[in-house]
Design a protein that fits this description.
The structure is a single chain. This protein has 722 residues and is of the alpha+beta class. It has a domain of 242 residues: Beta-galactosidase, Chain A, domain 5. It contains 16 helices and 36 strands. β31 and β32 form a beta hairpin.
Length: 722
């Protein structure tokens, strides 16, 4: 293809080529994900993130379909709303043999269907001939596998790499192989049906004769194999697809369904639910939402916890799976190169060659200051929602270890605040959720020096102690509960004295290593509303500050207020907008009864979703002020889908409704519920409450919300406070 230039095993795309289109289509299943272009191909274009990935390694870096020498013409491309199938409609340009037109333009319809399942990518290519004569379609498939580690794909360079192996060719298959420096044999096995006419190098030619007004099919299965050769499961396209559909059906049965009177809102919420289902990976401990594609398709402690909190009311099974996995991987010892300390909760885990060789420290890495208190917060929220006492009994020792970490390793200087300072030079400099190296600084732009105490982390610790107190009480430990509540009160008092900046109307983002407040206006302070550590008086000042023009862009609340020294609306953490951050802040606004402000945040996020591809809110977008007639500006390397971005809509809706489920009492509480003007009716089906469930119908009228029980199963009750 003339649009692609190859120089020393590196591919370059002409800027004028259609291949330079950077819009992508994403699929995921378990440890596998794929990033295709809109044609269903894979090329080394844009940020280089396209490929088929498995367990942290790219198993296909080039995958193209041509009709003879020509690329088909794109008609349409989408990932179905359930996120299972990539569907691409193509047709042919004029295909020449010598100087004659062998296939006139538009005679063939090519329909590509792709999905992932159990380490394999299944593709069915259906060809329909709308011409008057039989057509022999010369399909040319081209493959390349660089077996790059995900960190190489992100831009890291390595001094040495493993060995690429000679291609293995059979009548109906092609195998591309690589033996890594970690000794692991990785292979990409491509199976064709019907068999190709020829396989030469990394190209396969399949010739299909399609009768007039008839159809024919070609099937490809791409297996990603790690380790020594083993028996490869042979599933037909139809059988594998049925297994994927059944998995999706089981998830839907366990999840509350939400339907509204606004079809555009339904598209957003349906895509978000499908994204959450796609990001869920079934680990031995239960379902865990992997963080995001392409860069974070793995377990992250913080991301998993916040995602579980966002969707707790629609599917508490996610929280249980997250808690079980993080308890299983809780640090047991001091390991400096992993930033591990006893009782600390995992930051992230990675597979792949570089992690195995410790070229990166993230094989099992603990460099986050907030995962540990958030773990306890989630444990408390899960128990309140479900009343699952047996699980909490098993979890309690891990909760106690997390609390001990907060009191000891988390607060090494004994000042009552939890701080961070990395133990390994390869680790993260910043260990809060804003982990860019330049995200924590003073008013003049000077970077803060460690150890650093973040304002929102103190809120997490406060909420963790209160949640643990409730758990201790439920487990008949009243003395322990009293001690934890006393610690929470003391922390709140100290926090107000040290962090509140009266002249700014906001909490300082952090205290640096010299205990100097970083007097910078950030969204971190908004999360102090979410945890309840903010005093009511200060909350009344903080809430309008967060919704002022410096923070609220019209689409959402910025991570950093406009006008601050390092403000940049195109940055990762210093002025961008993150949906999950907005959801947490909205929940906090609701907690302090600023319901109208929570509605404004929901409306901004909803409007943003209307402009996003597939109605999918990405990990983040740029923080430019909203301009009439334009959508939000995309952040170029944002993960999409991202689990906690997908979960944002559920927490935003929960915040506006003032919804709490008390499984221990079999009750659903609505505290001063409100709905925006664009949602006149909301239906909630299969809302799980303790051992029972409910279907509810909500209707907006004159600024109020009427709530009707449509179905009730079990001894469950509804309490509405207006």
């Amino acid at each position: 293809m003339e649009d692609i230039i190859r120089v020393k095993d590196q591919y370059y795309i002409l800027a004028t080529s259609a291949l330079a289109d950077d819009r992508t289509r994403v699929l995921k299943w378990g440890e596998m994900f794929a990033v295709f272009d809109r044609y269903g191909d894979i090329f080394p274009v844009g940020l280089g993130e396209q490929g088929i990935f498995f367990e942290g390694t790219r198993y296909l870096s080039l995958y193209s379909l041509n009709l003879g020498p020509e690329r088909p013409l794109l008609l349409s491309s989408t990932v179905k709303e359930d996120n299972i199938l990539l569907a691409v409609d193509l047709t042919n340009p004029d295909v020449h043999i010598t100087d004659l037109v062998a296939i006139p333009r538009g005679a063939l319809h090519l329909f590509r269907s792709k999905f992932l399942h159990e380490g394999s990518c299944h593709e069915r290519l259906r060809l329909a001939n709308y011409g008057q004569k039989s057509i022999v379609a010369p399909l040319r498939f081209t493959f390349e596998a660089d077996f790059a580690d995900i960190f190489e794909v992100r831009g890291m360079t390595r001094e040495q790499r493993g060995e690429k192996l000679p291609h293995e060719v059979g009548d109906d298959y092609l195998v591309l192989g690589y033996r890594g420096l970690d000794g692991v044999l990785r292979r990409t096995r491509i199976h064709f049906s019907p068999p190709p006419r020829a396989i030469r190098g990394n190209e396969a030619v399949v010739e299909i004769s399609v009768p007039p007004q008839g159809t024919e099919e070609v099937h490809l299965t791409i297996h990603c194999l790690a380790g020594e050769p083993a028996t490869i499961p042979r599933r037909t396209f139809e059988a594998a697809h049925l297994e994927v559909l059944n998995k999706r059906r089981r998830t839907l049965e366990a999840t509350a369904g939400i339907y509204t009177s606004n079809e555009q809102f339904n598209h957003w919420i349906n895509r978000s639910a499908s994204d959450l289902d796609m990001m869920l990976t079934n680990l031995p401990q239960g379902p865990f939402p992997y963080a995001g594609v392409p860069w974070f398709n793995t377990a992250f402690g913080r991301d998993g916890i916040i995602t579980a909190l966002e969707c707790l009311w629609i599917n508490p099974d996610v929280a249980r799976g997250v808690l079980a996995y993080l308890a299983e991987t809780q640090a047991q010892a001091v390991i400096p190169e992993q930033d591990a300390e006893p009782g600390k909760i995992l930051h992230e885990t990675r597979g792949g060659e570089m992690a195995a060789l410790q070229e990166v420290p993230f094989g099992q890495y603990y460099g986050s200051v907030d995962s540990t208190p958030l773990f306890v917060v989630l444990a408390g929220a899960y128990y309140e929602h479900t009343g699952d006492r047996d699980f909490i009994i098993r979890l309690w020792p891990h909760v106690e270890r997390a609390l001990t970490w907060m009191d000891t390793y988390g607060d090494k200087d004994g000042d009552g605040f939890v701080e961070y300072d990395r133990r390994t030079p390869k680790g993260l400099i910043q260990q809060g959720w804003k982990d860019s190296h330049d995200s924590i600084f003073h008013a003049d732009g000077e970077l803060a020096q460690a150890p650093i105490a973040l304002c929102e982390v103190q809120g997490y610790v406060y909420a963790a102690r209160r949640a643990a107190a409730d758990l201790a009480e439920a487990l008949s430990q009243p003395v322990r509960a009293s001690t934890l509540r006393s610690q929470a009160r003391a922390l709140q008092e100290n926090f107000e004295r040290a962090f509140w900046q009266d002249d700014m109307g906001i909490y300082a983002v952090a205290l640096d290593g010299d205990k100097r407040p970083c007097r910078v206006r950030t969204s971190n302070a908004g999360q102090c509303l979410f945890t309840g550590i903010a005093s009511p008086d200060h909350a009344r000042i903080l809430a309008p500050t967060l919704m002022g023009e410096e923070f609220f862009s019209g689409w959402g609340i910025r991570t950093l207020a406009a006008g601050e020294a390092r403000y940049n609306p195109m940055s990762y953490h210093n002025g961008s907008i993150w949906p999950h951050d907005n959801a947490l802040i909205a929940r906090g606004l609701s907690h302090y009864r600023f319901r109208e402000l929570a509605l404004k945040v929901l409306a901004g996020m909803f409007d943003a979703s209307l402009f996003m591809d597939l109605n999918r809110l990405p990990e983040l977008f740029c923080g430019f002020h909203r301009r009439p007639g334009e959508g939000p500006t995309q952040y170029p390397v944002a993960c999409s889908p991202q689990a906690w971005a997908a979960g944002a809509v559920f927490m935003l809706l929960q915040a506006c409704l003032g919804l709490t489920i008390r499984g221990t009492q079999n009750q659903v509480h609505f505290f001063h519920p409100a709905l925006p003007e664009f949602l006149q009716e909301v239906s909630i089906r299969n809302l799980r409450v303790g051992q029972g469930s409910m279907d509810l119908a909500l209707r907006r009228y004159s600024g109020n919300v009427a709530i009707q029980v449509v179905r009730r199963e079990g001894d469950v009750s509804l309490l509405v406070v207006k």
